[in-house]
Every structure is written in structure tokens, then in C-alpha cells.
Design brief:
The complex is a heterodimer.
Chain A: H1 2-12, H2 18-28, H3 31-59, H4 66-86, H5 102-112, H6 115-130, H7 139-176, H8 179-184, H9 189-208
Helix pairs in contact in A: 1-6, 1-7, 2-3, 2-7, 3-5, 3-6, 3-7, 4-6, 4-9, 6-7, 6-9
Chain B: H1 13-18, E1 24-30, E2 39-44, E3 55-60, E4 72-73, E5 93-97, E6 104-108, E7 117-122, H2 124-131, E8 134-142, E9 145-152, E10 165-168, E11 175-178, E12 192-195, E13 200-203, H3 209-212, H4 218-222, E14 229-234, E15 239-245, E16 250-258, E17 266-274, E18 280-288, E19 291-300, E20 303-304, H5 312-315, E21 319-320, E22 324-329, E23 335-340, E24 345-350, E25 358-364, E26 387-389, E27 395-399, H6 404-410, E28 419-424, E29 430-437, E30 445-451
Antiparallel strand pairs in B: 1-2, 1-30, 2-3, 4-5, 5-6, 6-7, 8-9, 9-10, 10-11, 12-13, 13-14, 14-15, 16-17, 17-18, 18-19, 20-21, 22-23, 23-24, 24-25, 26-27, 27-28, 28-29
Classes of the chains: A mainly alpha, B mainly beta.
């Protein structure tokens, strides 16, 4: 549930790229450009997710340190939220990426905004729930299992992100029109930073209790 | 920062045309003999207002000798670019460079045009130290902040190294540094503009500072030493990818006007004078399969004149060159306005077919030999120069000054500041608004115009007009 919900949240956020899909479809006239742009965005987003989750999958093998890892991860997520809260300037490097490299853009924009970090507490919670006596398994087996889980989490998340973002892009492209873009675009930076802090906080609370 | 995009940001040119009309115009006032400080004038352009056509507010600078020329906003519709994530900027600050002093002023307009006030001054030393460039000119709000073109390089006379573009932060106005990574053969500069989603930029060439600061140098012009090339750039890659030479006789390629609709991959550039026959010309450039092309698509002939009606500079020719000093394209990409500063004519071309501009309207005012008065009977010194079109394309405003020292050479009888207005017919044709005549303070000339909420040479768009 949380994985799907976070995907929808990322998907409808204009900062994660759905206006690019509208632009691509309008500029190059048609559904092929629409889906190509959507595809490129999803590849970049998926890589950004998996890039953050896989190292944590590897670390979950260190079962002895499990609660420390979870607390540490939660603190990192909260700290990133706080940093975003106070540093509201957008990294300039993002505007240097040419429009032809959408996958790279999507990867960097998700990474810069800590979109992958938002998934970490959710993911670690899932690891624990799926296997309460992890302590009895061999480290290698555990790592493989958790790596598989991280791919699944990133996949489901990206899937729901692309479905929701794609649906919104399609609605603007076909029915709502470009006016929606300037009227319906809200500054989510503050809410985004608070979301990171919230997710991290919940992760922290669960890890401590 | 806003929570929602600035209401003056529009996703497409079509949406910009549908926005409410402008109530105020900003124009620059310059003291051509540098005896008074330059300033910004705010003009009431609301026909229902009691103060229609009057300067209702002005901001005078604390220095003299800046020579104001062009200016622009800190942010525009380009902020809605899906790539930049800067949708919540405000169109709030006007950035005014001093072309002669290299000093840059930032004016805050929050609270409305009539409350405009000085916000920040960037001293010339900072511009020199951080960029190695001098004589800042054109302002465009782009992907990484405010882009500023310059006409001079380093050193006292601006000839140590080529001029180029530098980037400023669009909120703090810190100078970030040079734009170019690879400038190729580009060694002169004037105007630049771009197509954001197609990721290319086009720049033009006027002259190096010694060729313009103390007046036009006739020997340099007759030996074709002014700029005559246009450069095409990989915008985000910051590389010059192609240079097209218009031919050495096509002296001074100035304003670059790309189609506003980003789906169209063409635009125009004006050439001041052809030294073989004194013609002015309009060129159309376009991109096809990744390559740029450029072709002369309209010419304007010189007009014969008696020697005694001409300034010393032109007496040998017994003719007045049209001198195409500014061009501007309407938001629907349909009409191209062409200022003929020498002959005193504002031309309106229908460019629905960009390869075949056809004359749709024309008004005469001023001119070196014609000296045509405004229909209200007032004397208009100079000729039509900086032209600006309302977003909806119905109103056209222009001023008369080109550049202090050049004004004096071509119009030695003087040139009081003027700002006039014409209305454009739905399918072309121009008519003067007799009631609109702006009186400037004694001793001032006027240059570029900016309209409240954006105009046809400010905003760049990331979505097509469909």
C-alpha cells in the first residue's frame, strides 16, 4: 500500500516529470512521443529507486545491526527532509541536461529530491515483515532475498508513479489543456520536505519500539 | 517565491495572447551627453486612464554615463519549463545594464509598476572580474538563470578577448560566470535568443566597442569590418555548432527573432545595411535535419535624397539607407515588424510563409530626409527604432533613439525622446494612435520598451500553441 501510494505521490508531482511528457507529445505530435517520454522517465526513476534501495538490501544481511541500520536510515531520511526544508534552491545542474536525455534527467531529479530515500523506511519495514526470523538464515540467501524485494519495491513504486503521472499527463494533453499547467501547478517543495521527515519519523518510531 | 506559478507565466504563446492587455509600459531614458543620470520611465498605456500616454513614475539612477540600451525581466514564461523546476519564480525584477559603463541595475517592481524602485547595483568591476566581459546588452531569462550578452571583452577598450554571454542568478543576481564552453569562431556579439525544448540558441554580431562607442566608423563600414555572421549553439551543451556568414557586405546582423511557437524551427534576423547598394534586409534562418540554413527573404531599398538634406556622413551617397535597426515578431508568428530608422518607416510584413515575407502595412514618421511629423502635428526626431508588440498583437509601440553617438551622426539636428503607438488591423495594416504621445523630460532620449506582464521579445515558451 505504502509503496503504491508513494508512487502515486511521486507521479502526480510535476517536479518528477509529467509536464515533460505533455511537452514531448505536443512538440513531436503524438502518442509515440508521449510513451517514449514516459518510458524514459520510468527508467530513470526506477534506477534512482534501486540505486538507493540495493545498498540497503546488502546491509540487511548484517542482521546483528538491524535496528541500528533502521534507526540510521530513518535519521538520514529525516535529515534530508530538514535539509530540503531549509535549502529551497533547485540544483542548477538539472537545467543543464538536454531535453533529449529524459532518463538521465529523471534519475537525477529523483535523486536530488530524495525520492529514493522516501522509500527506504517503507522498504526496511517490508524486509522485517516478510521474514521475522532472519537471524537463522545464511547471509548470502538473505541478501538475495532482500535484493529481490528491493527490485520488487522499486518496480511497483515506479509502476504506480508512471501510471498516475502518465494519466495526469494524458488528461492535460487530451482534455484539460495547457492552462492546467500554470493553474494546477503548486509548489510542493515544502510538502515534499515534510513528507520525507514524516516517513523517516515513522521509520524511526517503528525501529525504536 | 510563490506557491503557484506567476499569473504572467504562460505555457504557450497562444495562452500568452489570451492574457489581459498591458496597462503600463516601461522604457529606458538615457542622457545622450551623459550630463544627467539615466532612468527608467513607467508609462500609462491604458486608453481608459486619465493619464494615458503620460510618464506616471520614474526611477533615476545614482550614476551618470551608464547609457541604457536594452533590459529585461529576471523571470518569464520559460520558468514553466518542465526541465528546470523553477515554476515558482516571480516576474518581479527588471535588469538594466549600462552599455557604456558596464554597471548593472536591478529594479524591483513588486507592488506594481508605479512603485518600481532600485533593488541592487552590480558595479562594473564585478562584471569584469567574474566574466572577463564588458558592455552588457541583451537580457533573457533562461534555463539556468538570467543570460546577459555583452558587446565587449576585457581591457579598457573591450578588445582583450571576444565578447560573450554570462549567467546571473535570477533571484540573488550573483554573477555566476561565462556561458560559453566552446565559442568556435565567434568574436563579436549582439543579440541572442533560443528555442528551449529544441535546445538551440542563435546569436548575432554588431561590432567591437571601438567600432561603436565613439560613433560609427565609416572606413570600417565601407571595408565590411562590422559583424556579418550568425552563430548557432547547442544551448545546454554551451557549444557553437554552426556559423553562417551572410556575406561581408551584409553589415551588422542585429536582432534575432525565433518563432515564438517552439514547434517551429525557424526565425528571422535583420541586417542593417548592404554596403554594395545601401539596402536593408530581412533574413530567415531555419533548421532542417539538424543543420541550420539562412536566406535573405526581404530587401528594403534606399531612398534618393538631395545632398543638402543629408548629414555629412551620407552626403557622398545622395541617398538614405533604410537602416534596419530592430525587428520584432508578433506572438502568433504572423507579423514581423521592421524598423527602418534611416528612412523613417515602420514596416509590417506578413510572415505566415516565413520564406516569403509580404508587406502588409507601413507607417512613415521621422526619417533622415523625409522628417515626417506625427499625425498630431508634433515633430518626431530620428526614425522608428526599438519596437515592441503587445501580447495580443493589437498594439505596437516604438521609440526613436539608436545609440547616443550614432544618433548624433545620422540626426545631427537633435532627437528629443519619443514613444509612439500604432494599432494593427486583424489582417494587417497599421494606424497611428493620435492620442498617444509621450513627453520625456528635457535632454532625455528613449530606448527599449518592456510591457507589463511580458511582451513579444521577452518570454520564451516550452509548449506549442495547439
Amino acid at each position: 500500500m505504502a509503496v503504491v501510494a508513494s508512487g502515486i505521490y511521486h507521479g502526480v508531482n510535476p517536479g518528477m516529470g509529467w509536464p515533460l511528457v505533455v511537452s514531448a507529445a505536443l512538440m513531436d505530435g503524438g502518442s509515440r512521443a508521449f510513451f517514449a517520454a514516459l518510458g524514459a522517465l520510468s527508467v530513470g526513476h526506477f534506477l534512482a529507486m534501486i540505486g538507493i534501495l540495493l545498498p540497503f538490501a546488502a546491509m540487511t544481511a548484517l542482521v546483528e545491526w538491524q535496528s541500528e541500520i533502521r534507526i540510521g536510515a530513518a535519521i538520514v531520511v529525516v535529515a534530508f527532509g530538514v535539509w530540503l526544508l531549509f535549502n529551497r534552491r533547485h540544483p542548477r545542474i538539472l537545467s543543464r541536461i538536454p531535453p533529449s536525455r529524459l532518463a538521465l534527467w529523471s534519475f537525477l531529479v529523483a535523486t536530488a529530491h530524495g525520492a529514493g530515500l522516501m522509500l527506504v523506511p517503507i522498504y526496511l519495514g517490508l524486509c522485517l515483515a516478510s521474514d521475522p526470523d532472519a537471524g537463522h538464515q545464511a547471509a548470502a540467501a538473505l541478501m538475495t532475498q532482500n535484493a529481490g524485494l528491493s527490485v520488487a519495491v522499486a518496480g511497483v513504486h515506479t509502476g504506480s508513479m508512471i501510471l498516475s503521472g502518465g494519466a495526469l499527463a494524458f488528461a492535460v494533453y487530451r482534455w484539460l489543456g495547457l492552462r492546467f499547467l500554470s493553474k494546477g501547478w503548486f509548489d510542493l517543495d515544502l510538502i515534499w520536505a515534510l513528507s520525507l521527515m514524516l516517513v523517516g519519523g515513522i521509520g524511526l518510531a517503528v525501529a525504536i519500539w | 517565491m510563490n506557491i503557484r506559478p506567476d499569473p504572467t507565466f504562460h505555457a504557450s504563446p497562444k495562452l500568452a495572447m489570451e492574457a489581459p492587455p498591458e496597462n503600463f509600459a516601461y522604457t529606458l531614458m538615457l542622457s545622450p551627453d551623459f550630463s544627467q543620470p539615466d532612468g527608467l520611465a513607467v508609462v500609462d498605456v491604458d486608453p481608459s486612464s486619465r493619464k494615458f500616454g503620460k510618464i506616471v513614475h520614474s526611477v533615476m539612477m545614482p550614476n551618470k554615463g551608464d547609457e541604457f540600451h536594452h533590459f529585461g525581466w529576471n523571470a518569464c514564461s520559460s520558468a514553466l519549463s518542465p526541465l528546470s523546476g523553477h515554476a515558482f519564480l516571480e516576474r518581479r525584477y527588471l535588469i538594466i545594464p549600462g552599455l557604456r559603463s558596464s554597471r548593472i541595475y536591478v529594479i524591483d517592481t513588486k507592488g506594481g509598476p508605479t512603485t518600481a524602485r532600485l533593488h541592487k547595483i552590480i558595479e562594473p568591476e564585478e562584471v569584469f572580474a567574474k566574466t572577463g566581459y564588458s558592455r552588457p546588452h541583451t537580457i533573457h531569462c533562461g534555463p539556468e538563470g538570467v543570460y546577459v550578452s555583452t558587446l565587449g571583452g576585457g581591457g579598457k577598450d573591450g578588445t582583450e578577448g571576444p565578447p560573450g554571454i554570462f549567467i546571473m542568478d535570477c533571484e540573488t543576481f550573483e554573477i555566476i560566470g561565462r556561458y560559453e564552453i566552446d565559442r568556435g569562431v565567434q568574436d563579436k556579439h549582439y543579440d541572442f535568443w533560443w528555442n528551449l525544448p529544441r535546445d538551440y540558441m542563435v546569436s548575432s554580431e554588431w561590432a567591437l566597442p571601438p567600432q561603436f562607442e565613439n560613433g560609427i566608423v565609416p572606413e570600417d563600414l565601407l571595408s565590411n569590418k562590422y559583424g556579418h555572421r550568425i552563430h548557432f549553439w547547442d544551448l545546454r551543451g554551451r557549444k557553437n555548432v554552426q556559423t553562417i556568414d551572410l556575406g561581408a557586405n551584409h553589415q551588422m546582423a542585429l536582432e534575432v527573432r525565433p518563432a515564438h511557437d517552439p514547434v517551429k524551427e525557424y526565425g528571422f534576423v535583420g541586417v542593417v545595411v548592404d554596403t554594395t547598394n545601401l539596402e536593408g534586409s530581412i533574413w530567415t534562418w531555419w533548421r532542417e535535419k539538424g543543420k541550420f540554413h539562412c536566406k535573405k527573404t526581404a530587401t528594403i531599398p534606399p531612398e534618393p535624397a538631395a545632398k543638402e538634406d543629408l548629414p555629412p556622413l551620407l552626403q557622398g551617397f545622395e541617398a538614405v539607407p533604410p537602416l534596419v535597426t530592430d525587428i520584432d515578431l508578433s506572438m502568433d508568428d504572423r507579423f514581423l515588424y521592421v524598423s527602418c530608422w534611416g528612412t523613417g518607416e515602420m514596416r509590417q510584413y506578413d510572415v505566415s510563409d516565413p520564406m516569403n515575407p509580404t508587406l502588409a502595412g507601413s507607417l512613415h514618421i521621422g526619417g533622415i530626409a523625409r522628417r515626417k511629423k506625427h499625425p498630431n502635428g508634433k515633430v518626431y526626431g530620428g526614425g522608428p527604432q526599438m519596437v515592441e508588440i503587445s501580447r495580443d498583437g493589437k498594439r505596437v509601440y516604438w521609440t526613436n533613439s539608436l545609440y547616443s553617438t550614432w544618433d548624433n551622426q545620422f540626426y545631427p539636428d537633435g532627437m528629443p525622446g519619443a514613444l509612439v503607438k500604432a494599432t494593427a488591423g486583424k489582417n494587417g495594416g497599421l494606424r497611428f494612435d493620435r492620442k498617444f504621445w509621450v513627453e520625456f523630460p528635457e535632454g532625455y532620449r528613449s530606448h527599449q520598451i518592456r510591457l507589463e506582464g511580458g511582451d513579444c521579445s521577452t518570454d520564451s515558451f516550452c509548449y506549442p500553441s495547439v
